[in-house]
Amino acid sequence: MEKVVLIKYGELTTKKGNRKFFINTLYQNLQKKLNGLHVKISRDISRMYIEFEESELDFVLKRINQVFGIHTYQVASKVPTDIEEIKTNIIELMKDKCGTFKVDTKRSDKNFPIQSTEFSRQMGGVILKNNSSLSVDVHHPDTTLFIEILERFTYLYVDSFSGLGGYPVGTQPRGMLMLSGGIDSPVAGYLALKRGVKIEAVYFEAIPHTSIEARNKVIDLCKKLSVYSDKINLHIIPFTEIQEAIYKECNPEYCITIMRRMMYRIMEKMAKKHKGLVIINGESIGQVASQTLTSMSVINEVTNMPVIRPVACLDKLEIIDLAKKIDTYDISILPYEDCCTVFVPKHPVINPNLQECLDNEKKFDYETMIETTIEHVQTIVIQEKMQESYQDLL
Ligand code: ATP
Ligand code: MG
């Protein structure tokens, strides 16, 4: 019997006006993701169908689990809509099952001669006759056999799996992710991708105060994120000159606040250059001195651009759980120092004063420095390896 993966859209279906656009984006994302495997993807308004080669099923499912916009999926048997064919195939599907079961029939083809409830009852009888280890329980069955009857074909399946949910990446415009080597920002990036936002990553580097290993760590994190996206541009900002000027000229207690104001200013310019509409980062309320609400508002004062903070209201342990789930945690905890940690003062201000920031910032010509910095940005295109051996894919 022929097998096919059925994909249900879930949240997509709530977006009435945009539905076609969402489905097309998901279709393209799946095409790219399954590139290299022997599949044929088709779609209609309610779901997608993936025909595959039996030997590649594990790879297909692994990759489906990396695509946003999928609510549930099933591996179904596709049989002609013919009562005898259906019977033969459900006997085969249910032959190794034991415990309790029920049959759930959906008849999309109203020309099919038997009504859904009656057909479920009849097929239940067929199953019982052929498998004495099974009994019927319509309320809490161990196994539910789903029968979906369409005009030409009928789909039969017993298991339904949850997809990643969210919206297909690319259904929202671009956002600029501040990606550090820490635990929080890769998780923030993942959550933004989940809402369909396409991401450009930006990393602030302060060589020689930070190492090339710290940069490689960010590249590795970006690779992990690119699993959920097509490819991600990683922009590396040479931040040394600005950071050194801050630490030479400014009140030590205000160094972090001012450094972050400089980061936001640069982010705004990068966003304009790369058509990003929002800044995304891994700030979490109260986590450190620069993330109290007062600090956030004083730092945010330098830009009118929306700043999205996907992990703002999560506990660190909740963020860590997500980091483990997306496989970034082990990279994030590698010890290489980041530009934020290298320069941390003994007593960073918890409730900074805006005027004090402005007075300190007058002490050096940061505008020219920012212009020069932007001219020297390096960009690396990060893409998940698509040509791995099958072993690597698993
Ligand atoms: P941790 O997981 O240790 O908190 P972090 O990366 O979240 O690491 P924070 O000092 O809390 O570090 O920084 C808050 C946010 O600012 C980060 O989540 C990230 O979005 C951004 N950020 C910090 N440092 C950098 C950097 N060097 N480059 C790009 N973004 C940065
Ligand atoms: Mg943090």
Our measurement of the CA-to-CA distance between the termini, rounded to an integer number of angstroms, reads 26 Å
Overall pLDDT? 92
How many H/I helical runs? Answer: 15
Uncertain regions spanning at least 5 consecutive residues: 386-394
Strand content: 15-25%
CATH architecture of the largest domain: 3-Layer(aba) Sandwich
What is the H-and-E element order? EHEEHEHEHEEEEEHEHEHHEHEHHHHHEH
Q: Total domains, how many?
A: 2
CATH superfamily of the largest domain: HUPs
**Helix proportion range:** 25-40%
Shape: elongated
How would you characterize this protein structure?
- The chain is α/β, with parallel strands linked by helices and 394 residues long.
- The protein folds into two domains: 2-164, 2-Layer Sandwich (VC0802-like), CATH 3.30.2130; 170-383, HUPs (Rossmann fold).
- It is built from 15 helices and 15 strands.
- The strands form two sheets. Strands 1, 2, 3, 4, 5, 6, 7, 8 and 9 form a nine-stranded mixed sheet that branches.
- Helix 3 crosses helix 4 and helix 7 (240-249) runs antiparallel to helix 8 (255-273).
- The model is unreliable at 386-394 (pLDDT under 50).
- Adenosine-5'-triphosphate is lined by residues 178-180, 182-185, 202-204, 281-283, 287-288, 338-340.
